Amino acid sequence: MDLASLAKPQLIFSDVEAKSRDGALRTLTERICRVLGLSDPEAVLSALQEREELGSTAVGGGMAIPHGRIRGLRDIVLAVAVSKRGVDYGADDGVPVRFFFVLLSPRESAGRHLKALAAISEWVSSGGRERLRRVSKAQEIYELLCANGRV
Q1: With a threshold of 0.90, does the pTM exceed it?
Q2: Among 51, 67, 69, 113, the one annotated catalytic
Q3: Predicted pLDDT of residue 7
Q4: Does 113 participate in catalysis according to the annotation?
Q5: CA-CA distance, 89 to 8, in Å (whole number)?
Q6: Is the CA virtual torsion 21, 23, 28, 29 positive or negative?
Q7: What is the domain class of 3-148 according to CATH?
């Protein structure tokens, strides 16, 4: 799966400020829903929080991949966000999360959801984390995903 096909410039947020995991999820949900015109941000937030209750989606090294499957969503949505200060997210390595890949999928798209999660994980572990640390603007992040998003 190609991350460039999932990424949209309007869903890249380079200035997220939150102090906690729940604050970050709420902020990201509100921004994503505003951009996409989704009418039920509480349902999106609830799906993300339910997944976090199963275990943290922080993958270490300052990265998290919060994700959920949403009833009524038409296609997979990927949002990427950066917190300059970092967020205490309960990561196993104790490192505050600075980079978020938020994946939302239609409830009926379990297979594509898993493929997208795998693509994100592979991109992050194959040098994406280091490349992200060298850019700071939303457009630069989008270009990075488009240039190096194929795994």
Answers
A1: yes
A2: 67
A3: 87
A4: no
A5: 25
A6: positive
A7: alpha beta
Q: Percentage of the chain with pLDDT > 90?
A: 70
Residue count (the chain): 151
Query: What is the CB neighbour count within 10 angstroms for residue 29?
Result: 25
CB–CB of 21/91 below 8 Å?
Answer: no
Contacts for 134 with CB less than 8 Å, ≥ 6 apart: none
Tokens (6 digits) for 51: 């997944």
Q: CA-to-CA distance for 81 and 14, rounded, in angstroms?
A: 6
Instruction: Classify 86 as helix, strand or coil.
Output: strand
pLDDT confidence band for 79 (50 / 70 / 90): very high
Q: Is the dihedral of CA 124, 56, 31, 71 positive or negative?
A: positive
Find all residues with CB under 8 Å of 3, minimum gap 6, and list them: 78, 119, 120, 123, 145, 149, 150, 151
- Buried b vs exposed e over 107-123: b needs ≥16 C-beta within 10 Å? eebeeebeebbebbbeb
Domain layout of the chain by residue ranges:
3-148
Q: Is the pLDDT of residue 65 over 60?
A: yes
CA 46 – CA 52 distance, rounded (Å)? 10
